[in-house]
Design goal:
The protein is of the alpha/beta class. The chain has one domain: 3-Layer(aba) Sandwich (Rossmann fold). It is 33% helix and 16% strand. The protein contains eight helices and eleven strands. The chain has helices spanning 27-36, 65-71, 96-117, 158-177, 192-204, 219-230, 253-260, 280-286; strands spanning 16-20, 40-45, 56-59, 81-84, 121-127, 144-145, 181-186, 188-190, 216-218, 237-241, 265-266. Strands 3-2-1-4-5-7-10 form a seven-stranded parallel beta sheet, with helices on both faces. The longest helix has 22 residues, at 96-117. The relative contact order is 0.15. The mean pLDDT is 96.
Length: 300
């Protein structure tokens, strides 16, 4: 591939961005966030929905090749960027093979299709579940914390596997077409009532969140991360953690580790309620810093 064929993730005002999964937890916040920044948004989901800030709303399944191809050229030319959020959002909603098949097929058709169409860059949702702890069905502990992107996946559930394969699809699209792809490893994402409900569950039973390592992110910060990537100037393929700097628990992080993950090596000082997920790569690559915290009641 020649240097001239390599694209750059540097979108600006009036560029068109296709957002799949636009009616989902993250998507419905991403769409107005991008629109407020001056981007023109084409919102896609598979069931009828409203998205007042989108310039165009399309209803269809991202596993339908023809629909994806049409969505990538809504105004007769390729969109400038793609934000792929459409996926089965958690295990247990469908049989395991269907979770894997739907998530991977949708990612392939959208990301490979975007690269083929000439889209300038793509961002897609992965998950910290790709590490393999969250939905393993048995207690597994990370070899070290804070967890960074160098830590290998030990996934033994189909959802975690679907995310690791989705990341590989992104890498494939970058190698094949020169389109920058950034896969964001999100933890639990929420704000408002959704976040308040999650926090209440953890207050009642801190052990119940041990496999997710008490990681979380405000939905508004997830949208901010997406926009930061689209305007970052990045090239190439990246997989990055994007989590809040603290946990979703009131118990000190060191105490949580000692109680639930005693074999895990601590590679950096853990102060107070520091997160066990290292998001420093996101800061280094596209300047991400979480702006919203749950410990301030006004944030809920």
């Amino acid at each position: 591939m020649s240097e001239q064929e390599i694209r750059r993730c540097a979108l600006g005002a009036d560029d068109v961005v296709l957002v799949t999964g636009a009616a989902g937890v993250i998507g419905k916040v991403v769409v107005p966030h991008l629109a407020d920044s001056g981007l023109r948004v084409v919102a896609v989901d598979r069931a009828p929905f409203t998205s007042p800030r989108a310039e165009l709303v399309l209803v269809g399944d991202v596993r339908d090749r023809a629909f994806v191809e049409e969505s990538l050229r809504p105004f007769g030319r390729p969109v400038d960027g793609v934000v792929h959020l459409a996926a089965i959002a958690a295990p247990g909603q469908l049989p395991e093979d269907e979770t894997l098949a739907q998530n991977v097929q949708g990612a392939y058709l959208v990301l490979d299709g975007a690269g083929r169409a000439g889209v300038r860059c793509a961002v897609a949702a992965s998950s910290v579940a790709a590490y393999g702890y969250a939905w393993a069905g048995r207690d597994l502990s990370p070899p070290y914390v804070p967890i960074d992107e160098d830590q290998e996946s030990v996934a033994i559930d189909s959802y975690g596997l679907s995310k690791t394969v989705t990341e590989q699809v992104g890498a494939f699209a970058t190698r094949r077409w020169g389109m920058p792809t950034t896969l964001l490893r999100f933890p639990f994402v929420g704000d408002g009532k959704r976040l308040a409900s999650q926090l209440a569950r953890i207050r009642r039973n801190v052990a119940g969140n041990r496999r997710e390592l008490w990681a979380w992110l405000d939905t508004r910060d997830a949208a901010y991360a997406v926009h930061a990537v689209l305007t970052s100037g990045l090239t190439g393929h990246h997989v990055v953690n994007v989590a809040a700097p603290d946990t979703s628990a009131t118990v000190p992080t060191a105490d949580l580790l000692e109680r639930f993950h005693p074999t895990t090596q601590v590679r950096a000082p853990l102060r107070g309620v520091d997160s066990l997920v290292d998001s420093s790569a996101a800061h280094r690559l596209f300047g991400f810093e979480a702006r919203h915290g749950w410990r301030d009641e006004a944030a809920l």
